[in-house]
Amino acid sequence: MSRTYDIIAFANAGFNELKLTTQSIFDDVGAGLLCTGVQKLSQRWLLEFLTVRGSMGFHLANRGTDFLRVFRNRQFNSETEVRSQFNFANVLIYQNLLKEQTDATPDDEKLATATLTGVTIQPGFLTLSIKITTVAGTS
Length: 139
Hints:
The chain is α+β, with helices and mostly antiparallel strands. The protein is built from 3 helices and 6 strands; from the N terminus they run E-E-E-E-H-H-H-E-E. It has helices at residues 37-50, 67-72, 79-100; strands at 6-7, 10-11, 22-23, 34-35, 111-122, 125-134. It has a two-stranded antiparallel ribbon with strand order 1-4. Helix 1 crosses helix 3. The longest helix has 22 residues, at 79-100. The protein is globular.
């Protein structure tokens, strides 16, 4: 098994507490931090979730989800609708991440489940709490 690293795109992510993240690959202090394991998987899941399907060109047309497109069109009127769209997006993400896996991918970087644990709908805002669990059992 070989370990690879990603640059952290969403800094300050909390695992056991709620925190707002900031998107920052480079800042005035340094050239970015590295992540691996469940943090790397969570970041990959989130980037896939936030990518609008079809926005990455012909060779990556199937990457991403329609979740943000639906949100932008203000089509979420209830928690049930949010959960339904989340579940649809989650299936696409699982399939896309599975295609990237190899025999060398560590279990703590393989997606077992992504569970929507909370939804808050406010005018102009949607807050989701998501629990990512790896095949190794870390979350």
